[in-house]
Design brief:
Length: 355
Protein backbone atom coordinates (compact mmCIF):
# COMPACT_ATOMS: atom_id res chain seq x y z
CA UNK A 1 0.00 0.00 0.00
CA UNK A 2 1.42 3.37 -1.05
CA UNK A 3 1.27 6.36 1.30
CA UNK A 4 0.08 8.71 -1.46
CA UNK A 5 -2.11 7.86 -4.43
CA UNK A 6 -0.40 8.44 -7.81
CA UNK A 7 -3.83 8.36 -9.49
CA UNK A 8 -5.69 11.40 -8.21
CA UNK A 9 -7.55 14.59 -9.16
CA UNK A 10 -7.34 18.18 -8.00
CA UNK A 11 -11.11 18.43 -7.58
CA UNK A 12 -11.20 15.54 -5.10
CA UNK A 13 -7.95 16.26 -3.24
CA UNK A 14 -8.09 17.21 0.43
CA UNK A 15 -5.50 19.96 0.89
CA UNK A 16 -5.53 20.58 4.65
CA UNK A 17 -3.07 23.51 4.63
CA UNK A 18 -2.28 22.92 8.30
CA UNK A 19 1.40 21.97 8.15
CA UNK A 20 2.97 25.33 7.32
CA UNK A 21 3.61 27.74 4.46
CA UNK A 22 5.69 27.19 1.31
CA UNK A 23 6.93 29.37 -1.53
CA UNK A 24 8.15 27.68 -4.72
CA UNK A 25 10.86 28.97 -7.08
CA UNK A 26 11.44 27.64 -10.61
CA UNK A 27 7.92 26.34 -10.09
CA UNK A 28 7.15 25.10 -13.64
CA UNK A 29 3.58 23.77 -13.73
CA UNK A 30 3.57 23.12 -10.01
CA UNK A 31 4.82 19.54 -9.59
CA UNK A 32 6.46 20.23 -6.25
CA UNK A 33 3.65 22.62 -5.29
CA UNK A 34 1.10 19.82 -5.59
CA UNK A 35 3.34 17.57 -3.52
CA UNK A 36 3.47 20.07 -0.66
CA UNK A 37 -0.30 20.46 -0.88
CA UNK A 38 -0.80 16.69 -0.71
CA UNK A 39 1.39 16.67 2.41
CA UNK A 40 -0.81 19.34 4.03
CA UNK A 41 1.21 22.51 3.39
CA UNK A 42 -0.15 25.84 2.18
CA UNK A 43 1.76 26.94 -0.93
CA UNK A 44 1.26 30.70 -0.98
CA UNK A 45 3.08 31.55 -4.19
CA UNK A 46 5.66 30.96 -6.86
CA UNK A 47 8.39 32.46 -9.01
CA UNK A 48 8.83 31.27 -12.61
CA UNK A 49 10.48 32.62 -15.76
CA UNK A 50 8.51 30.67 -18.40
CA UNK A 51 5.23 32.41 -19.41
CA UNK A 52 3.63 29.13 -20.52
CA UNK A 53 4.42 27.45 -17.24
CA UNK A 54 3.21 30.23 -14.98
CA UNK A 55 0.00 30.58 -17.01
CA UNK A 56 -0.80 26.93 -16.27
CA UNK A 57 0.37 27.29 -12.67
CA UNK A 58 -2.02 30.16 -12.10
CA UNK A 59 -4.89 28.34 -13.82
CA UNK A 60 -4.49 25.22 -11.67
CA UNK A 61 -3.33 26.65 -8.33
CA UNK A 62 -4.61 30.23 -8.15
CA UNK A 63 -1.63 31.35 -6.02
CA UNK A 64 -1.86 34.31 -3.68
CA UNK A 65 1.48 35.58 -5.01
CA UNK A 66 3.06 34.82 -8.38
CA UNK A 67 6.05 36.45 -10.04
CA UNK A 68 6.88 36.00 -13.71
CA UNK A 69 10.51 37.11 -13.81
CA UNK A 70 14.09 35.80 -13.57
CA UNK A 71 15.12 34.88 -10.05
CA UNK A 72 18.01 37.36 -10.36
CA UNK A 73 15.40 40.12 -10.41
CA UNK A 74 13.03 38.49 -7.93
CA UNK A 75 15.68 38.06 -5.24
CA UNK A 76 16.44 41.81 -5.34
CA UNK A 77 12.85 42.99 -4.87
CA UNK A 78 12.26 45.30 -1.94
CA UNK A 79 8.46 44.95 -2.07
CA UNK A 80 8.01 41.30 -1.09
CA UNK A 81 5.06 40.61 1.25
CA UNK A 82 5.72 39.89 4.94
CA UNK A 83 4.43 36.34 4.53
CA UNK A 84 7.49 35.45 2.48
CA UNK A 85 9.71 36.35 5.44
CA UNK A 86 7.87 33.85 7.65
CA UNK A 87 7.98 30.71 5.49
CA UNK A 88 8.23 27.21 6.81
CA UNK A 89 9.76 25.97 3.53
CA UNK A 90 11.42 27.72 0.60
CA UNK A 91 11.35 25.28 -2.32
CA UNK A 92 13.26 25.38 -5.58
CA UNK A 93 14.34 23.33 -8.59
CA UNK A 94 17.01 25.41 -10.36
CA UNK A 95 17.20 24.47 -14.09
CA UNK A 96 19.69 21.65 -14.33
CA UNK A 97 20.62 20.98 -17.96
CA UNK A 98 24.22 22.07 -17.30
CA UNK A 99 24.61 19.01 -15.07
CA UNK A 100 22.42 16.52 -16.92
CA UNK A 101 24.20 13.49 -18.32
CA UNK A 102 22.13 14.01 -21.48
CA UNK A 103 23.57 17.51 -21.99
CA UNK A 104 26.97 19.08 -22.69
CA UNK A 105 27.84 19.35 -18.98
CA UNK A 106 31.26 21.04 -18.52
CA UNK A 107 31.20 22.54 -22.04
CA UNK A 108 28.19 24.67 -21.07
CA UNK A 109 29.29 25.72 -17.58
CA UNK A 110 29.51 29.49 -17.20
CA UNK A 111 27.78 30.22 -20.52
CA UNK A 112 24.63 32.26 -21.09
CA UNK A 113 21.90 29.92 -22.31
CA UNK A 114 18.17 29.85 -22.83
CA UNK A 115 16.62 26.97 -20.93
CA UNK A 116 13.39 27.22 -22.88
CA UNK A 117 12.12 29.18 -25.86
CA UNK A 118 10.82 32.58 -24.83
CA UNK A 119 13.01 32.88 -21.75
CA UNK A 120 15.81 35.33 -21.12
CA UNK A 121 19.38 34.11 -21.37
CA UNK A 122 20.91 33.03 -18.04
CA UNK A 123 24.01 31.29 -16.76
CA UNK A 124 22.21 28.14 -15.67
CA UNK A 125 24.84 26.83 -13.28
CA UNK A 126 24.66 29.99 -11.13
CA UNK A 127 20.89 29.83 -10.60
CA UNK A 128 21.32 27.63 -7.53
CA UNK A 129 23.30 30.42 -5.88
CA UNK A 130 20.69 33.01 -6.87
CA UNK A 131 18.16 30.75 -5.13
CA UNK A 132 20.34 30.64 -2.01
CA UNK A 133 20.67 34.43 -2.11
CA UNK A 134 16.89 34.50 -1.84
CA UNK A 135 17.09 31.99 1.01
CA UNK A 136 19.49 34.26 2.88
CA UNK A 137 17.12 37.16 2.38
CA UNK A 138 13.91 35.38 3.44
CA UNK A 139 15.42 33.10 6.14
CA UNK A 140 12.76 30.36 5.98
CA UNK A 141 12.83 27.59 8.56
CA UNK A 142 13.71 24.99 5.91
CA UNK A 143 15.09 25.12 2.36
CA UNK A 144 14.55 22.23 -0.06
CA UNK A 145 16.19 22.15 -3.49
CA UNK A 146 16.02 19.51 -6.21
CA UNK A 147 18.41 18.78 -9.06
CA UNK A 148 19.63 16.05 -11.41
CA UNK A 149 21.79 13.05 -10.55
CA UNK A 150 24.56 14.49 -12.72
CA UNK A 151 25.41 16.98 -9.96
CA UNK A 152 27.04 14.11 -8.07
CA UNK A 153 29.22 12.90 -10.94
CA UNK A 154 32.65 13.95 -12.14
CA UNK A 155 33.72 17.58 -11.91
CA UNK A 156 30.23 18.62 -10.80
CA UNK A 157 31.03 17.32 -7.31
CA UNK A 158 33.08 20.49 -6.77
CA UNK A 159 29.93 22.45 -7.52
CA UNK A 160 28.11 20.51 -4.80
CA UNK A 161 30.86 21.45 -2.35
CA UNK A 162 30.29 25.12 -3.17
CA UNK A 163 26.54 24.69 -2.65
CA UNK A 164 27.12 23.11 0.77
CA UNK A 165 29.49 25.91 1.73
CA UNK A 166 26.96 28.51 0.65
CA UNK A 167 24.23 26.92 2.77
CA UNK A 168 26.57 27.06 5.76
CA UNK A 169 27.43 30.70 5.13
CA UNK A 170 23.78 31.79 5.02
CA UNK A 171 23.04 30.05 8.33
CA UNK A 172 21.77 26.57 7.52
CA UNK A 173 22.72 22.99 8.34
CA UNK A 174 22.38 21.02 5.12
CA UNK A 175 22.67 17.54 3.70
CA UNK A 176 21.66 15.93 0.41
CA UNK A 177 20.48 12.57 -0.84
CA UNK A 178 19.93 10.86 -4.19
CA UNK A 179 16.35 9.58 -4.23
CA UNK A 180 14.54 7.25 -6.63
CA UNK A 181 10.89 8.13 -7.26
CA UNK A 182 10.03 4.48 -7.99
CA UNK A 183 10.66 3.65 -4.32
CA UNK A 184 8.43 6.51 -3.18
CA UNK A 185 5.15 5.51 -4.79
CA UNK A 186 5.73 7.09 -8.22
CA UNK A 187 5.29 4.82 -11.31
CA UNK A 188 8.66 5.72 -12.86
CA UNK A 189 12.35 5.30 -12.21
CA UNK A 190 13.44 8.90 -11.70
CA UNK A 191 16.58 9.68 -9.72
CA UNK A 192 16.96 13.19 -8.36
CA UNK A 193 19.23 14.86 -5.82
CA UNK A 194 17.49 16.68 -2.98
CA UNK A 195 19.23 19.20 -0.74
CA UNK A 196 17.46 19.71 2.58
CA UNK A 197 18.53 22.41 5.03
CA UNK A 198 17.26 23.76 8.34
CA UNK A 199 18.10 27.10 9.92
CA UNK A 200 20.82 26.64 12.52
CA UNK A 201 19.03 28.51 15.30
CA UNK A 202 16.02 26.17 15.03
CA UNK A 203 17.69 22.78 14.86
CA UNK A 204 17.71 20.69 18.03
CA UNK A 205 18.46 17.27 16.56
CA UNK A 206 21.57 15.18 16.01
CA UNK A 207 24.03 15.12 13.13
CA UNK A 208 25.03 12.59 10.49
CA UNK A 209 28.73 13.53 10.70
CA UNK A 210 31.29 14.01 13.46
CA UNK A 211 31.68 17.69 12.67
CA UNK A 212 28.14 18.74 13.59
CA UNK A 213 27.31 20.05 10.14
CA UNK A 214 24.88 17.61 8.48
CA UNK A 215 21.47 17.37 10.17
CA UNK A 216 19.65 14.06 10.47
CA UNK A 217 16.57 13.52 8.31
CA UNK A 218 15.35 10.00 7.57
CA UNK A 219 14.64 9.84 3.84
CA UNK A 220 14.72 6.09 3.34
CA UNK A 221 11.81 4.88 1.24
CA UNK A 222 10.94 1.41 0.03
CA UNK A 223 7.36 1.45 -1.22
CA UNK A 224 6.15 -1.25 -3.65
CA UNK A 225 7.08 -0.55 -7.27
CA UNK A 226 4.24 0.27 -9.69
CA UNK A 227 4.60 -1.50 -13.03
CA UNK A 228 3.42 -0.10 -16.34
CA UNK A 229 0.71 -2.75 -16.70
CA UNK A 230 -0.93 -1.27 -13.61
CA UNK A 231 -1.47 2.11 -15.28
CA UNK A 232 -1.69 1.53 -19.05
CA UNK A 233 -4.78 2.26 -21.14
CA UNK A 234 -3.29 2.07 -24.68
CA UNK A 235 -5.09 5.24 -25.78
CA UNK A 236 -2.02 7.16 -26.85
CA UNK A 237 -1.19 8.27 -30.40
CA UNK A 238 -0.04 5.44 -32.69
CA UNK A 239 3.41 5.44 -34.28
CA UNK A 240 3.16 6.68 -37.86
CA UNK A 241 2.92 4.03 -40.54
CA UNK A 242 5.98 3.91 -42.78
CA UNK A 243 8.11 5.85 -40.34
CA UNK A 244 11.48 4.88 -38.86
CA UNK A 245 10.10 4.52 -35.32
CA UNK A 246 7.38 2.12 -36.43
CA UNK A 247 9.89 0.09 -38.46
CA UNK A 248 12.31 -0.06 -35.56
CA UNK A 249 9.51 -0.99 -33.13
CA UNK A 250 8.65 -3.98 -35.34
CA UNK A 251 12.23 -5.29 -34.90
CA UNK A 252 12.23 -5.08 -31.10
CA UNK A 253 13.08 -8.02 -28.85
CA UNK A 254 12.06 -8.64 -25.20
CA UNK A 255 15.51 -7.82 -23.81
CA UNK A 256 15.55 -4.36 -25.43
CA UNK A 257 15.19 -1.56 -22.88
CA UNK A 258 14.84 1.06 -25.56
CA UNK A 259 15.02 1.71 -29.28
CA UNK A 260 18.77 2.27 -29.06
CA UNK A 261 19.22 -1.43 -28.22
CA UNK A 262 17.11 -2.40 -31.22
CA UNK A 263 18.89 0.07 -33.49
CA UNK A 264 22.39 -1.10 -32.54
CA UNK A 265 21.51 -4.75 -33.04
CA UNK A 266 19.42 -4.48 -36.21
CA UNK A 267 20.94 -1.51 -38.02
CA UNK A 268 24.39 -1.30 -36.42
CA UNK A 269 23.78 2.37 -35.62
CA UNK A 270 24.14 4.36 -32.40
CA UNK A 271 20.87 6.26 -32.43
CA UNK A 272 17.45 6.63 -30.74
CA UNK A 273 18.90 6.81 -27.22
CA UNK A 274 16.02 9.01 -26.07
CA UNK A 275 13.30 6.47 -26.84
CA UNK A 276 12.64 3.96 -24.04
CA UNK A 277 10.26 1.00 -24.17
CA UNK A 278 7.51 0.64 -21.60
CA UNK A 279 7.33 -3.06 -20.70
CA UNK A 280 4.24 -4.35 -18.90
CA UNK A 281 6.16 -5.98 -16.06
CA UNK A 282 8.67 -3.18 -15.50
CA UNK A 283 8.48 0.25 -13.93
CA UNK A 284 8.52 3.09 -16.45
CA UNK A 285 11.85 4.75 -17.11
CA UNK A 286 12.21 8.52 -16.61
CA UNK A 287 9.82 10.60 -18.65
CA UNK A 288 11.06 13.70 -20.46
CA UNK A 289 9.38 16.77 -21.90
CA UNK A 290 9.06 15.06 -25.30
CA UNK A 291 6.11 12.85 -26.21
CA UNK A 292 8.25 10.33 -28.10
CA UNK A 293 10.54 9.50 -25.17
CA UNK A 294 8.35 6.61 -23.98
CA UNK A 295 7.06 4.03 -26.46
CA UNK A 296 4.89 1.11 -25.43
CA UNK A 297 6.55 -2.24 -26.09
CA UNK A 298 3.32 -4.25 -26.47
CA UNK A 299 1.63 -1.74 -28.78
CA UNK A 300 3.12 0.65 -31.38
CA UNK A 301 2.06 3.88 -29.71
CA UNK A 302 3.10 6.68 -27.40
CA UNK A 303 1.74 7.17 -23.91
CA UNK A 304 -1.72 8.70 -23.52
CA UNK A 305 -2.43 11.80 -21.44
CA UNK A 306 -3.76 9.71 -18.54
CA UNK A 307 -0.82 7.29 -18.71
CA UNK A 308 1.75 10.08 -18.58
CA UNK A 309 -0.15 11.80 -15.74
CA UNK A 310 -0.01 8.59 -13.71
CA UNK A 311 3.67 8.03 -14.55
CA UNK A 312 4.40 11.54 -13.28
CA UNK A 313 1.86 11.31 -10.40
CA UNK A 314 0.18 14.41 -11.85
CA UNK A 315 -3.57 14.89 -11.22
CA UNK A 316 -5.68 13.45 -14.02
CA UNK A 317 -7.71 16.67 -14.25
CA UNK A 318 -4.73 19.06 -14.46
CA UNK A 319 -5.50 21.80 -16.98
CA UNK A 320 -2.60 21.87 -19.45
CA UNK A 321 -4.25 24.75 -21.34
CA UNK A 322 -4.15 22.84 -24.62
CA UNK A 323 -0.42 22.12 -24.41
CA UNK A 324 1.26 18.71 -24.30
CA UNK A 325 1.09 17.00 -20.91
CA UNK A 326 4.57 15.57 -21.49
CA UNK A 327 6.04 19.07 -21.66
CA UNK A 328 4.88 19.90 -18.14
CA UNK A 329 5.33 16.50 -16.52
CA UNK A 330 8.79 15.87 -17.95
CA UNK A 331 9.95 19.20 -16.49
CA UNK A 332 8.37 18.72 -13.08
CA UNK A 333 9.21 17.07 -9.80
CA UNK A 334 6.61 14.28 -9.38
CA UNK A 335 4.08 15.55 -6.81
CA UNK A 336 4.09 12.29 -4.84
CA UNK A 337 7.90 12.44 -4.59
CA UNK A 338 7.71 15.89 -3.02
CA UNK A 339 4.81 14.86 -0.79
CA UNK A 340 6.92 12.06 0.69
CA UNK A 341 9.85 14.39 1.46
CA UNK A 342 7.61 17.17 2.79
CA UNK A 343 5.91 14.73 5.16
CA UNK A 344 9.26 13.62 6.61
CA UNK A 345 10.41 17.24 6.97
CA UNK A 346 7.26 18.12 8.86
CA UNK A 347 7.34 15.05 11.11
CA UNK A 348 11.04 15.25 11.97
CA UNK A 349 11.88 18.97 11.75
CA UNK A 350 8.83 21.22 11.78
CA UNK A 351 6.35 19.47 14.03
CA UNK A 352 6.86 20.77 17.57
CA UNK A 353 5.98 17.34 18.92
CA UNK A 354 8.89 15.81 17.01
CA UNK A 355 11.52 18.11 18.53
Amino acid sequence: MNKFNYEWTLKDANFTKDKGSVFSCFACGGGSTMGYKLAGFDVIGCNEIDPKMIEAYRANHNPKYSYLEPIQEFKNRDDLPKELYNLDILDGSPPCSSFSMAGNREKDWGKDKKFREGQAEQVLDTLFFDFLDLGEKLQPKVIIAENVKGMLLGAAQKYVDKVLTCFDEIGYYVDFKLLDASKMGVPQRRERVFFYAIRKDLYKGGFEDLFGTRPILDLEFNEPGIKFKDIKDLKGRALGEGGKLKELWSLRQPQDKGMADTCIREWNRNAYFNQSYLHDNLISSTTTAKEDSLIIYESPRYTSKNEICKIGSYPLDYNFLGKKAHYFIGMSVPPVMTAQIATRVYEQWLNDAAK
